[in-house]
Amino acid sequence: VSFCKALLGKELAMTDTFERYRQVARRAVEYQLGYQGGDGAYIWDGYAVDAHHKQAYSWGLAGRLAEAHRLLDWVRRERLQPNGQLRDYAGDVYKHSWFFQGAHRLGRFDLSYPGIDFLVTCQAPCGGFPHFAGDRLLRSLATAWTGISAIYAGRMDVAQRAAQCSISMLEQQPHDDRFYYKMTRDGRLVVDDSDPDNLIDTAKPKQAYWEVGLPMMLMCRMFQVTGQTYFLDVASRLFEFKLRCFQDNYGWAGSGKSSLAAAIYYSITDDARARDAALRCPDFLAETQDPEGGRRDETEPDELLIYIDHAAEFSVWITEIVGILESKIP
């Protein structure tokens, strides 16, 4: 009896924790919505012209469907170009993937299908994707996120090639304590220690953890689609690397993508380390959220765009993580 009571108490405490996280996500969504115009436009005084790519995903998860559809209607009227690109986004593959996933999950195929048609034109011969369409080098961030977009679209040929590129990037790593995340278009890893925007150093804090988190997520998604344990094995290797990173590896603003990847990995493997890792980012965000609902790291400019962008992304990670982890409670 005492054991059952203790177990019940633990489950109730976790339920309270999850509700606390959901409140953080709701505040983040409400904060974003305060900047939407009556015609659906997402602009404000001094607004950035490429700052509406995450909102449909964020608002759709929160159940704010009317606002999300108004935004997408505005994008279709004012921002969608004939080739599927968004005006003013300068061929940003990563941001287009965000927008595609948000629109596609809402059934806005009038926007998502043109979007994926543009994205697939950016795939390099080795299967990877550049951050911007015209870039000379490819990047893990854009490769994995667009690979996931391709899975949503049913473009498994594109997803498979992106996954193989991500695996090749991992296989070419020369050191266990570093992860280089840029490649040439023919698939050669760029090992350049002089470029701080090219590697994750496990000994340093506040690293570009998303460059490992997104390929881990892609591997988990590929396993879900194909059932091939090969992809899960690669996800495990990426997870082990991430665990070797600095102590903020799952507890910093740049840890959201990795935390969702850990939650998905936990849902597949029941590895308790992944569950615990996934919980650390929502807890960090709950502790550091701005009272109005946004967030800014002290290293970033004190600009409205930063608060809004982070609110959108963090609401997604928190909502997805809580949903996955809560589903595992008996």
Would you mind describing this structure in some detail?
The chain is mainly α. The protein has helices at residues 2-33, 55-61, 65-78, 93-105, 109-120, 140-152, 156-171, 210-226, 229-244, 256-269, 272-288, 304-327; strands spanning 137-139, 178-180, 182-184, 199-201. It has a two-stranded antiparallel sheet. Helix 10 runs antiparallel to helix 11 (272-288). The longest helix has 32 residues, at 2-33.
Mean pLDDT comes to 95
Largest sheet: 2 strands, antiparallel
Integer-rounded radius of gyration = 19 Å
Assign the structural class, choosing from mainly alpha, mainly beta, alpha/beta, alpha+beta, or little secondary structure.
Answer: mainly alpha
Order of strands in the sheet with most strands = 1-3
Shape, please?
globular
| Strand content range | under 5%
Question: Helix share of residues?
Answer: 55-70%
The N- to C-terminal Cα distance equals 17 Å
Annotation field: number of helices: 12
Descriptive key words:
disordered N terminus; 4% strand; two-stranded antiparallel ribbon; 12 helices; 4 strands; mainly alpha; 330 residues; single chain
Give the helix/strand layout:
Blueprint lengths: L1 H32 L21 H7 L3 H14 L14 H13 L3 H12 L16 E3 H13 L3 H16 L6 E3 L1 E3 L14 E3 L8 H17 L2 H16 L11 H14 L2 H17 L15 H24 L3
Antiparallel strand pairs: 1-3, 2-4
Write a short abstract of this structure.
This protein is mainly alpha-helical and 330 residues long. Helix content is 59%, strand content 4%. The longest helix has 32 residues.
